[in-house]
Amino acid sequence: MTSGTETPGLAELLGRYRPQGPEETAHHERLLGLVGAPDAWDRATPLHFTASALIVHPRTKRVLLRWHVRQQAWLQVGGHGDPGETLPLEIALREGREETHLTDLVPWPDASLVHVTVVPVPASPREPAHEHADLRFLLATGTPDEARPENPDSPLEWLTPAEARERTTEENFRETLDRAGRLLRQLGNGTEPGPSHEGPGSVPSHAGSKPRACP
Fold first, then answer.
1. I want to staple 111 with a disulfide (CB 3.0 to 4.6 A). Which of 107, 125, 139, 206 is the partner?
2. pTM value?
């Protein structure tokens, strides 16, 4: 695991991030306003930080999507910080490992944010409506065929960025996919970590919209 001394903190990440366009600029300003708040990661507050990541396989220029039951949507991995966690990249790495069983995940092409956004979350029987100040990274794997779902209700699927864009229903995630797709086209060859595989192997992509369990 990346140590705290090597991982950029929240203020550093957001301070050096340059948003793209008026919407992300407005979201970025809201996130900056949360920095330093003692409850910035507390899921009981109306607006709190989350950290997520789109997992990529640079050699085949594919991305890994996860079916989220609550949102009823294909999205990236990620979520809330555990008690005491405040380093966004470490939270995204932990969530990625837990939700895919991929043990070789590393920041790609570096540890910078790829996208920041504020995501509205509807009320549920357990909590009122609130917003996630989501900090998004790219994580790469060199062993795509080792991806396994966290549970049967949360299947995984390898797709091209274009296929993933069609699969998801969330416009803010489409923006993340577009940015990842550009980077994969520019940098995808020869930059993946760990042992190489020829392709996603036993995790095929499909054009249909129903969730499929990753074998």
1. 107
2. 0.86
